[in-house]
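Researcher: We plan to redesign the surface later, but first we want a full-length starting point. Tokens attached.
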């Protein structure tokens, strides 16, 4: 089994909140339980690693990815990209093959 195209859109993130990391953590813990229950898991893919334009509405207000794109719903912005906190978290999860799911300490 492979789990893919899971995601979490975020309108605004308050300091100290890590909703995407929590979503990844919950998904991977569920996958670990599935393995313990006998499922053959061969993959996990997060949908949309970069903030993208909504295909349905063309808006940028909802944020999906690990990489922030400087653009708003009116098309303003530099299109500069920068890593979000969730980027470093997912990088750590990948490097540990899903064994290190410790969430960052809250601010």
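Model: Full-length starting sequence:
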């Amino acid at each position: 089994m492979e789990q893919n195209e899971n995601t979490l859109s975020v309108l605004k993130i308050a300091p100290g909140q890590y909703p995407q990391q929590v979503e990844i953590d919950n998904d991977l813990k569920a996958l670990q339980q599935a393995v313990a229950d006998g499922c053959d898991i061969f993959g996990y893919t997060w949908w949309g690693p970069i903030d993208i334009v909504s295909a349905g509405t063309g808006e940028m207000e909802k944020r999906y990815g690990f990489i922030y794109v400087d653009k708003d719903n009116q098309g303003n912005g530099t299109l500069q990209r920068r890593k979000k906190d969730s980027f470093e978290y997912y990088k750590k999860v990948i490097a540990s093959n899903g064994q290190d799911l410790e969430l960052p300490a809250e601010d």
